[in-house]
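Annex B. Sample input.
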Amino acid sequence: SSAKYELLGQVHLRMGQSLESCKVYREMLLRHPDWLARAEKGIDEILSIHPHLHPALSLFYELKRRKNQQQPLGRKNLKLFEADPQDLSALHFLACAAKAEGRLDEALQRFETIQQSDPEDWNSCLGLAGIHLENRDHDRAVDAYEKALEQNNDLIPYLIPVFQGLQARHPDIASITEFL
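Annex B, continued. Sample output.
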């Protein structure tokens, strides 16, 4: 139910893990695009505290835009997002959907396309890093995290625990101070 996602999003937010909260709402909307109104309150709260996370919620704004244009939002309507290959927010939505459904090669290709079109898109760097982690390609994951940080220094407090966990599992990775 939507209550599970909303509660998890709120817990992460209360623990100071706003980026994790964004991920919860993004997953909620990937699985249930029609729950847009239910996600809006939590997303507004995140952005009132951390406005720099606006790009991490691009899916929410894309769905909201489509709803305002009275376009259907259900999962069966993903074809709407494939109509314009130049629409980077739609491409990001499709990359996230592919990743959530375990189609990592497709997600990787879409995130790389976004990076080629907009090298300053730090959100796609985070998507690439997540895929590289799942593929156990730690060097490329670290490179993607570094690139995200080059684009958005506000990510530092959110990426420190991620990087520390990665370093704990793989001691050969550079120290956190080198990374930052």
